[in-house]
UniProtKB/TrEMBL annotation:
Keyword Lipid biosynthesis: no
Record SUPFAM superfamilies: Actin-like ATPase domain (SSF53067)
Gene3D superfamilies noted in UniProt: 3.30.420.40
Similarity remark: Belongs to the heat shock protein 70 family.
CDD domains (alphabetical): ASKHA_NBD_HSP70_HSPA12 (cd10229)
Name under which the protein is recorded: Heat shock 70 kDa protein 12A-like
Gene this protein is translated from: LOC111126029
Source species, domain of life: Eukaryota
Keywords tagged on the record: ATP-binding, Nucleotide-binding
Molecular function terms, GO-annotated: ATP binding; ATP-dependent protein folding chaperone
Amino acid sequence: MSSLLVAAIDFGSTFSGYAFSFLHDYKRDPLKISTNTWSAGVGQLMTAKTSTCVLFDSAQKFHSFGFEAEEKYSNLALDDKHHDWYYFRRFKMMLYDKMGLTRESLIEDDKGKKMEAMKVFSAAIGYLRNHLLSTCEKQLTDIEDSDIRWVLTVPAIWSDPSKQFMREAAEKVGICGDKLVIALEPEAASIYCMHLPVKKDSENSTFRVFKSGSKYMVVDAGGGTIDITVHEVQDNGTLKELHKANGGNWGGTKVDSFFRSLLASIVGNDVIEAFTTDHKYDYLELLRDFEIKKRTIHPHLAEKVTFKVPINLLETFREVNPGKNIKAVVTSNARFKNQLTWTGDKIRMEANLTKTLFDESCKKIINHMHQLFRHPNVKDVSSILLVGGFAESPMLQEAVREAFRNRKVIVPQDAGLAVLKGAVLYGHQPMTISARSMSSLLVAAIDFGTTFSGYAFSFLHDYKRDPLKISANSWNAGIGHLVTLKTSTCVLFDAAGNFHSFGFEAEEKYSDLALDEMHHNWYYFRRFKMMLYDKTELKRETLIEDDKGKKMEAMKVFSAAIGYLKEHLHSTCKRQLTDIEDSDITWVLTVPAIWTDPSKQFMREAAEKVGISRDRLVIALEPEAASLYCMHLPVHKDSENSTFGVFKSGSKYMVVDAGGGTIDITVHEVQNDRTLKEIYKANGGDWGGTKVDASFKRLLAFIVGNDVIDAFNTNHRYDYLELLRDFEVKKRTIKPNLTEKVTFKVPTTLLQTFHEMHPGSNIKDVVTSNVRFKNQLTWTGDKLRMEAQLTKALFDESCKKIVDHMHQLFRHPSVKDVSSILLVGGFAESPMLQEAVREAFSEIKVIVPQDAGLAVLKGAVLYGHQPKAISGRVCKFTYGVGTMIPFNSTIHPQSKKITLNGVDLCRDKFSIHVRVGQLVKVGEPQVKQGYSVTTPDSTTISFGIYTSNDKEPTYTTDVGCTRLGTLTLDMPNTSKGKNRGADVYMTFSGTEIIVTAVDQNDPKRIVATNVDFLG
């Protein structure tokens, strides 16, 4: 039986959130998906996601998550009590293509302190889970854990270890493995968009692109990664992947990185670093202000963009550069002549300069998409579904549309929620065998993002009536009580290593500690998810560093985050259904599709550690979840209930899941059965929204110097965090057509730090003398003002990387015919990314759902309800095991010869199970291989599991081969000596690798298997 509620958590690099849908609502209306409204930032901004920040106290006890963590940490920094706290921000990117990822992997917090990544991720997920449960309980007070299916979204381009890491982090916070589904963000967004109506004459038509047989590319543009998949709608309405998930780290954070670098080019990296260290509050406020600002930047922007500059940054500049005037620095910088002015606390950038901030990110995305469209399986895809938070950026949307004018680019109205809501739909439609046999009353999805995390859930009865009736929690944090649907991916532990809080609460607590100078021994993790991104040698014991460099076991951090989200979601659901049991809930934990298998296992084990049963946990790939979600979303046409036309059968579209950390890209084709088939392997990179933040931080460092930023970050933690949060909010307002100057409030402590480190220097003179910022940036008092052009330039790196990667993808034969781009993820909500994608792919339809940032989360819920929605995937690697075969001197090198019991064997032979680029059918084992014991007394058969980028690797030692983990078969009965073996069935078509085995001597006996990617 299906779950009563599907709760999806979209854990984004920059922003996270959750959504949920009750089964009865889903059945009536799949799109009846509830999301939380988060409050934070100046002006009481209400958003559907919250910042992916986690705060731990000095004892590594979780304190808060999201905006709450940002606020708390900022307050701590104001009182200079944040030093021992652990503040993690946009940590999801650590899971993107991270090598050596283990359960014990450590990540560094905002100040370089290390903590276990698992603990940070678990705390973030746990917070979102608990918040989601609390929200659900408002609707159904008697809901039990067993009634909920959780969906946790991940980029499709994430490695398997990263996905496992997310799953384990979720399990650590009480999301039972059998109730958790990991949804690929592009797939979730694709599923979501398939349910979206277009306004036509009929009432119930869906997106035309999603008709049976249609193929489309889903571009899930998040803050960190661009996650792209290509789907084909099957006859039964499910989606078949036509190309392996792909993408890169070209998400919205690339714009942030460029903005920071722009600031650094003005005042100098030393000033930026000192400002970051000594004026944490103002620094965070500056980042939050930019986060809001960048979302308003659009291609048609003509007015100057104004940024508020904290006064402390000017002071830091003066301290680092005695005698210099910031205004003179800007004026003397030829790069910014007539482009940027800095007056008082205002940096004003001309529109052209502001929009260039998106160039790099958009270019990377578009170039990658072009490469995809050259692939034989993708070239006939005529639609692009643009989802994800970054997909909401007019800059990315325009870039994609401009680059692919001959293709239909679809951007759902709620592109940033496409993955989140698609995860909910995915949660209602789980694909695994165990999920099919579940009796889940509730699907609960946790989207553990790099920057923001959240959860969503959907009750089975709601899902059956209305699949989009997905509930997501509303988080409150930040100045002005900003309400968003995701909270910051931040985990806080106290000095004793006890979990204190997650999300905004962790940020707030850590900030308060910093204000009182009591944070030094606390552990604060933010944006720690990225440690799982393609991490090599990921182990259960992997350590991560917190905000100040203190180390903690990553498993502990991730589990705490997942546990918090799990408990929060559970509390929310119980408000609606008080008697819901754990066995009634299917948990869906989203992970990037580009994550490695070890990362997936790490996430799974982290989730299991917090009470999420293995058989109730589903790992959802973020792009897939977004794709599912977008399949349910309407577009604005003549009728009210039709869904995206891009999801018609046979349509192909690219899902770009742009999160805060990673850009997860997959390409889907809609099958005749309405399932989605991946037509190109998951891909992407760490180009999410945090790159924009990084650009902004570099820009500040360029102005005042890195030494000033470092000192400001260390000595004024509260102000530093406030500056980042202000920028995070600000950057969301940046649009490509922005012409007005963007104003940032500058904390006074930053200027103080500048003056202390640069006695006699004047920050205004430093800015004025910097030719880069001439007529582009001004600094007066506590206000930094940037011209629109300079402001938008912060998005350039991220957008360029995303667009470039997308261009590369569209060159692939399987992708080049994709006509739609689905831009989802938190970063997909950035107008800059949207415009960049549209401009780069003007001939392709770029779709950005209205809630693109929630597409993965809600799509994960849908995925939990409908696991069969994805019918086919493309292998990202060649998978196999290392084994030994009889030695043949004519073909085997002597170096491979080994003699056992008098028999000459060839070692290190790569026994291929599936090949890179191979289309595999979901739910069916791809290969059967027989293996035997090597000695009469052997009680186990153990193999190394390997991956290769080559289709025909010969030996496991070949270049490009990587040991992924270990497969162990239990063979305890030695009575038959060497005449013992097992037939091994390996399934690579799911979001995780599944291995089963039977005894060759007794086919009825199931051989116990253990696959360990984290050993």
